[in-house]
Write a structure and sequence with these properties.
DNA-binding, 0% strand, homodimer, mainly alpha, Arc Repressor Mutant, subunit A
Chain lengths: 200, 200
Amino acid sequence: MSEESTEKKIKEAARIQFIKKGMTGARMQEIADQAGINKALLHYYYKSKEQLFYSIFDDVIQDMLPRLVAILNSELPLEVKVYQLTDKYIEFLSDRPEMPLFVLNELQRHPEELIQRLHLQKGIDLSVIKDQLKTEAEKGTIREISVEMFLLNMISLLVFPFAAKSLFQAVAQVNENQFSQFMEARKTEVPKYIMNALRP
Amino acid sequence: MSEESTEKKIKEAARIQFIKKGMTGARMQEIADQAGINKALLHYYYKSKEQLFYSIFDDVIQDMLPRLVAILNSELPLEVKVYQLTDKYIEFLSDRPEMPLFVLNELQRHPEELIQRLHLQKGIDLSVIKDQLKTEAEKGTIREISVEMFLLNMISLLVFPFAAKSLFQAVAQVNENQFSQFMEARKTEVPKYIMNALRP
DNA sequence: GTCTATAAAGGGATAGAC
DNA sequence: GTCTATCCCTTTATAGAC
């Protein structure tokens, strides 16, 4: 029953290698080794390294973005939304701490292609959260803030700590376990921080 | 008068290439080309690619870190500090938007060496800002927060927008000029956001 | 589909002349 | 110091047998 398809094994191995070493740093040989096959077979499934890379990249994007958008466009109250987004994202990234850098790197290298790939998933609709921020500001429960500023701040607080994980660990002198605990603490700290920052 | 030393030209070219493409992505040939010399001469000045890379990397770190630490350890009031750090960092990164990813990448690749290189500049002393946060909390002007949490949140808000510049530009549909304006607006928005978030 | 063997290109590094 | 020429290892990619 533990027989996995070759294609599946390739994708797993490639994901691990590309995420750890990036497009230029990863090696087809290592991917083949880790998948338990040889390079020739790897090329049988994926004509080129580039093709394999983008196959992985698209998977990763598809795995991340919909979660964010689904919560963002839900009809939950703003505060609940912030708490849920924080919880889901810290949970998700705790299992994949190298992912932010992987994605950010590729986007910096090929910004043009990114735009296409994002539009493929019919763009990102920000109207729900935008209206919500406006309504709350009119009610006086939060101060006025643009949806871009609100989102960029929140994403920064959620994602950056994982992108800078090594740096943080070195500066704060914490091991893996303590880092996990710290991120766990952020699940309540960050939403509080954000909602506080938005008070009128 | 426009005669630059070869070494200087090499460093300039290398900085540009390494920052844009990373250690593994950059090519010695391209660096030589851009410096207006050939590969042999490049190797005459720097025995290996790795040696050249770390020479550049150290320069970059030396260029960034002291600015942060100087303000952090000054005797300025907390709020002034936050405003100054924001202003200085957004100013600095606006001219070097690719730098965060460059540094973060290398740190993820060799966390061990990072620790050494950070200790070389006699580590980072957080006691001043730590005491300051404690004192302010006791006075009741801010709520209680650990120095690690405070700094990580601030750095996230300052650095991440540059690391995610391409992504943000794609999602928010803004061009270079609009991005600059947005970052200019953050110079006042971010400190306000932070100080607000710290209210009791 | 999967392998062995090998071609072909890429890219870091050095020898040696000037 | 600077160049041309070249080495040689690494890595991607393909040919061809099973």
